[in-house]
Specification:
With about 130 residues, this protein is α/β, with parallel strands linked by helices. Helix content is about 20%, strand content about 25%. It has a 5-stranded mixed beta sheet.
Length: about 130
Amino acid sequence: MKIAAISEDGITISQHFGRAPVYVVITVEDGRIVGKETRDKTGHHTFAAHHPPNLAPGERHGYDAGSPVRHESMAETISDCQVLITGGMGWGAYESMQSYDIKPIVTDIKSIDEAVQLYLDGRLPNLMERLH
């Protein structure tokens, strides 16, 4: 199994999926971490010409016309992962990751290592209220 976490520094979980520049990918075998690597991630920094549309109150982020292509490019890098841990993300990205068979989990845990261990222990809650 492979678990991806979004990060800015390779140690902590970024609070926003679209802004994070890297994935930390953890390989797990028999419930134990056996590998860790960092992969570049496309995102807002890559799509510099993209300006998200102004959303009305209560409107969900990540459903504009260009979002599917952007989400696909973010998913390609972790297509071998089954889980994605993030501190926050838009609904469109959340649903897109699910469509690529990647289970997104939104958490308030800061440490990648701690969040992965909690996930492996079955104790990492998915904080859906952090979606926007």
